[in-house]
Specification:
- There is one protein chain.
- With 339 residues, the chain is of the alpha/beta class.
- The chain has three domains: 1-93, no CATH class; 103-173 and 321-339, no CATH class; 180-318, Trna Endonuclease, Chain: A, domain 1 (3-Layer(aba) Sandwich), CATH 3.40.1350.10.
- It has helices at 6-53, 57-75, 81-93, 106-112, 118-131, 135-143, 146-151, 156-165, 195-204, 206-213, 259-276, 295-302, 321-336, and strands spanning 180-181, 217-228, 231-241, 246-256, 285-292, 308-315.
- The chain is globular.
């Protein structure tokens, strides 16, 4: 390039590029904030109109139909009866405008508002903020009942804290789910499958698997070799958790988890603590994952084990929403009764 210093030109181009990207991000954020505030206010006006006129449910549907028709005629797309229904619900679910997160798009809220549970809705808002989930990731987590699966391991106060703040990871128990859901593997229900097949499919779908595991997991290796004397052992999956600063070992079992599976994981944990851990690493965590588990057998098997060892189930298909909902309601009701 005659008369132009190539190095200086590249620097100039990068400066302009950074400026344009920043400008577009700010413009998008500004538009998104205005859009969310507008939709929230539309919902508020509809609710206030209904309350003022004491509009009954059947007439409420007629109101939304008429509004949809008139607004679409004047302003074009974006005002379908479905959208207006969700704007109304947007206000009812988040009656204080300051609780609306402008980090989320209307598409995020549209998915979150499909639930009628305020605790669940609040959790997914907080989790989207923390994890920077795309709409696609959010839909998968809602469908797999993430809130219920995390909440079932807590008491009433824990459930409410989870809903208000999202999932905090500060101790090993915080990263464990029961059950884990691997529906993204697309294994037909009638198929016979081997542990190695599940393991391979999880690695082939590593991005989705990491989303199911949760924040902070970094993949280290598959069939990680451990040599003790002249014997060799292989850990199915090894991860490192960036937040907890420790190795996480996962062993997959196709059927029911047996007591010797837990003993074997304890061996792996002792080895990693002595041979693999660096000076600043925390003690490793072990998770034995099986299709079934006997609660009493697991209880006796892990008793007096000093290592951080957990036993969870995995499912190849989505959990039963109604059953999880009933269990969660029971926890909250028991908490109210002083449990």
């Amino acid at each position: 390039m005659k008369g132009i210093e190539l190095k200086d030109y590249k620097a100039l181009k990068q400066q302009i590029k950074n400026l344009l990207i920043e400008g577009r991000q700010k413009a998008y954020q500004s538009i998104n904030t205005i859009l969310l505030q507008t939709y929230w206010n539309i919902g508020k006006y509809i609710v206030e109109y209904e309350q003022k006129g004491n509009v009954k449910a059947k007439y409420g549907e007629q109101l939304l139909k008429k509004l949809s028709k008139d607004l679409t005629f004047e302003f074009g797309k974006g005002f379908s009866r479905s959208n207006l229904t969700y704007m109304r619900k947007f206000y009812l679910m988040f009656p204080k405008s300051e609780t609306v997160s402008h980090k989320l798009s209307w598409s995020h809220y549209f998915e979150i508002l499909k639930t009628d549970d305020r605790l669940e809705a609040s959790f997914y808002v907080k989790q989207c903020e923390k994890e920077n989930w795309s709409v696609r990731e959010l839909k998968r987590q809602i469908k797999s009942m993430l809130f219920h699966r995390l909440a079932l391991s807590k008491d009433k106060k824990g459930v409410i804290k989870l809903a208000k703040a999202g999932q905090d990871i500060s101790r090993p128990n915080d990263i464990v789910k029961d059950p884990y859901v691997f529906e993204f593997l697309d294994i037909p229900r009638q198929n016979l499958y081997l542990e190695g097949e599940i393991e391979k499919r999880l690695i082939d779908n590593l991005e989705k698997f990491l989303l199911e595991l949760g924040k902070g997991f970094a993949f280290v290796g598959r069939q990680y070799k451990i040599s003790i004397g002249n014997r060799h052992f292989y850990v199915d999956l090894v991860f490192y958790h960036r937040i907890l600063k420790c190795f996480v070992l996962i062993d997959l079992k196709r059927g029911e988890i047996e007591h010797n599976d837990i003993g074997q994981m304890n061996l792996y944990l002792n080895y990693f603590a002595e041979e693999e851990n660096e000076k600043d690493d925390n003690p490793p965590i072990g998770i034995v994952l099986g299709a079934y588990k006997d609660k009493i057998l697991v209880e006796y098997s892990v008793k007096n084990i000093s290592n951080k060892l957990f036993v969870s189930k995995y499912q190849l298909y989505l959990p039963n929403k109604e059953e999880l909902q009933k269990e969660l309601i029971k926890i909250i009701e028991d908490g109210e009764n002083g449990w």
